[in-house]
Structures are given as C-alpha cells and as structure tokens.
Write a structure and sequence with these properties.
By secondary structure, this protein is of the alpha+beta class. The chain has ten helices and six strands; from the N terminus they run αβαααββααβααββαα.
Amino acid sequence: MTGRRRASNIGAGAAGLCLFAAGCAAPQPKLALAPEVLSTEWRGAPAPVQGRLIPVEGLGQAFDNPALQGLIARALQSNADIAVARARVAQARSQLAVARAAMLPAVSASAGLTGTRSDNERARPFDFSQAFAGLDVSFDTDLFGGNRAGRRAARTRVSAAAFDRQAAALVVEAEVARAFIQHAALADRIALLDRSIGTSRELERIVRVRLREGVATRVDTGLQAIEVRQLEAERTRLAEAQEQTHNALAVLVGEEAPRFEPPQATLVAFREPAFVPVQPGALLVRRPDIQAAEARISAARGDVERARAAFLPNLRLTASSLVQAATLTGPFGATVSAGANLLAPIFQGGRLRGELSFATATQVETVELYRRALLVALREAQDALSAVEQSRRREALLAQAVEEARTTARLRRLQFIEGAADLRDVLEAQRFLVQAEDARAITLQERMNAAIDLYRAMGGTPRA
C-alpha cells in the first residue's frame, strides 16, 4: 500500500515537473504597442464660435432639410455596403459561437445491432445476436487558456465588425448628404446659366436689330452668337453632371438608377451647420474606424495567446459508458470508465513556432493599421477644419465679387444700348458676372461639403 502511494506521488510530481518545464519552454513573443495621441489641440483652429458639439445629431437634421433626412434614412436601411457590413457582423458572431463551443464538454452517442444473414429458406433472413449503446463525454480543461484566448479573440472580432458597420453607415450618411447637396448646387448653377443664356439671347436680338440699322457690324453679331452657344454648351455639361449625381445618389440609397427620382432642392433649402470640433484625443472614442482597428489589436493578441498555448500540455478528461447484450432476449450489461489524458506536443516545434510567428506578425500589422487609421483621422479632421474656415472666407469674397459684377454688367449693358460702349466690353462684363455667380455657387457647395467632412472626421453621431 505504501509503495503504491509513493509511486502515485512520484507520478504526480513528474507530471507537475513536466507542466512547469513546458511552461518555461513556451516562447515569449514580443507584441507591438498601440500608439497614443500626442496632439492636444488643432493647428490653426479658428476662434470658438457658437455652435453644436460634434456629434450631436444626424446630417439631415444638422442641415435642417427633411428631404435629406429621408434619403439618409433610406440609405441606412437599403445601402449595399451597409448590408455587407451587417452580414460580416453575423459572420463574426457565428465564429464566436464556435469559439464558445470549444469551452463546453463534447458528448457523443452510438448504438447498433450485429447479426448474421442466413441462406436457409425456412429461417429468418437476418439473425440479430447482439445490441449495444454507448455514450462518450470529453472535456478540455484548457489548462493554459488557449480556448479562452480564442474566445476573447472571437468576441473582439464581433466588436470590430460592429464598429465597421458603424463606419460604413457614417460614410454612407456623409456621401448621401454630399451627393444631394451637389445635386442641388448643380440645379442652382443650371438656373444661373439659364438666366445668363436668356440675357445673352436678348442681347443677341438687340445686336441683330442694330446690324439691320447699320449701327452694329457682322463681327458684333458673330461674337454674341459665340457667347450664347458657349453658355448653352456649358449648360449641357452641367446637366450631364447632374444626371450622373442623380445616378450616384440612387446607388447610395440602394435603388435602381432608372427608377430613382431624387427630391428637388436648391442650396438655399439647406441650413449650414456650425459645428464645434472635439479635441484630437476624443477621436479615439468617437470614430468607429479607429475603434474597429483597436478591437482588431485585441483580437490579434488573443490569437497570439492561443498559438503560444499550443506549445503547452493539455489535460483532457473523458468518461464513457457501454450498455450491451449478447442476445436481444438476454440480460444487458453495463460498463462505465473515466480517465484523464495529459497531452503534450512532441516533434511539432516547427509548425507551432510558425503559427506563433504568424500570429505575432499579424498582431504587429494590426498595430500599424491602427496607427495609420489614427494618422488619417487626424489629417482628415485637420483638413476639414481648414476647409471650413477657408471656404467661409472665400464665400464672403465671392459674394462681394458677384455684387460688383452685377453692377458692372448692368452699367455696361446700358452704355451699349445708348451707344457709349463697345459690345466687347458688354460681353466681358457679362462673362465676369457668369463666372462670379458660378464660383459663388460652387463655394457654397464647398462650405457645406466642409461641414460634412468635419462631421465625418469627428465621428458623426454614435449609432447602436
């Protein structure tokens, strides 16, 4: 009895020594660390203004445009990119269910009959002589946490996929607003050209009248005809751009371009939002693309832990039972057995080291992807802040230019009618007016695009 106890103690001590030695032999990979945001404020940020902290609301509400709100709602429901991101969330959740299953006992059952076939016509074709049924239960104790690490990695990948879905929704929301505003801006620019074309045609009629009276020359009529045709050609270019914007908007809201009809709008139908930007460090918790990149770092760390655990022994507990009878009419017998297997990897160092090296390199890659996402986010925010400020100044200057151009064109036209000015002066003044009004419409669109870029750069409105 004493000898058996001593042998058992020696065996337990040997097993413990084996576990300790294996734990010391497992490689210790060097993981990369995620960078921190060192910037505390934005470069050249304008003086604080009265506005709304980003994010506070959706872009449709920020621009105070019900038509835009409806388009964004349709896009968030039917956009293909968002649907793809939603499917990837479901895929990640399925992988999490698989990882969780590895933590549960595995149960299998079996049953059957054995018999012989007889060629005797008077006997039964089959003579079943034995029946059996079995039940096996096994459980992985996960001594060194490999399965737990896999479960944590799968869980964080679900979070990353959810953040990717939010990032896709933010991009779609911004692009719908951008496309709809561009559609409205093109409508305004076409309306400006229509007015200019009408004025130029009227001037062309006056020139032809003066030609018949001998006051104007054939060169004057030719110059004015050229001006009208150039304006008409420019209108066709803007109409083509508006049609393409129409089709792009259809794709964004998840509808077929031939059947899609966007609401009519002009730039005056939008209220320009005044956003107050958050601090640079707040982007870490505001932007879903940065949060997704951070979650992938955590998932990659779990993969490294699981690959490292593969070097270590694993304890598996098993239990099985067997119920059988020699004949179907005879008594049943039952056998129950239980055991524990300590399994350690042997002669697999090359494969295991390769898998660990791959997992470690992937973790370093996720850190670099996170750093890139962070740098891009800071650049986008800085660009948007600069665009908001510079487009505001540009629009103010162009508003003054438009007023001066209108006055000059009106005076030149009167002087020409009275015979005190040359037609070339009238054409030049009219051309300046068209260019100034078109440039101002473009700048108004740029101001709204800058607000959209700032909203997106600051993370938009958090969504569940």
